[in-house]
Amino acid sequence: MEATNRPYAKFQPNEEYLEALISMGISENHAQEALFCTGNESVEAAVSYVFTNLLHEDNDDENLMPPGAENNVDESPKRYKMTFVVNTALKMGLGKTAAQVAHACLGLYREMRITGDREDALNEWDYFGEKKIVLKGENTEHLEALFNKAKEMNVPCYLVSDAGHTQIPPGSVTVLSVFGDEEEVNAITGTLSLL
């Protein structure tokens, strides 16, 4: 019996899911690992696993390019993300912070869906795992400055003002959400630390 260090070597992936993943340009090894680690749940779960875990693991973008795009770097898909900048000066509790980040995510997502702003980008973000990053903001002025910078750059953004029912005064600016491709979002929030 041949020895292997892959825990999914004897695993039987859903053939339909495996075929779909490979047709997206994901290597067979990455596709099998993703299906193994997500319990054969769905193509979407496996794709999310690949983009969340395997891209960072080996930076092997060659395995994730669409078929036929190997020689055309300009055709590779953009990666999108949503970042959330939390007003740390408010010293919100963990639950309060989580609720405010959720408000920021849903607020920006709804606003973009209603206006149709960057619908293709939003659909691609949805499909590839909805990458989200939570960052530390200094205070209200800091969040407002980042909000204004995003507006000037025409990057979708949303600023949450709390109703003041718990922990903090009404009208407090709690979280800023920003959405776009990695490059433009990093131009706004790329220097901030993770929360």
UniProtKB/TrEMBL annotation:
It catalyses: an N-acyl-L-alpha-aminoacyl-tRNA + H2O = an N-acyl-L-amino acid + a tRNA + H(+). It is an enzyme of class 3 (hydrolase). Pfam families: PTH2, UBA_7. GO terms for cellular component: cytosol. Residues 12-53 form the UBA domain. Keywords: Hydrolase. Its EC number is 3.1.1.29. CDD domains: PTH2 (cd02430), UBA1_scUBP14_like (cd14296). NCBIfam families: arch_pth2. This is peptidyl-tRNA hydrolase. The lineage of its organism: Eukaryota, Metazoa, Ecdysozoa, Arthropoda, Hexapoda.
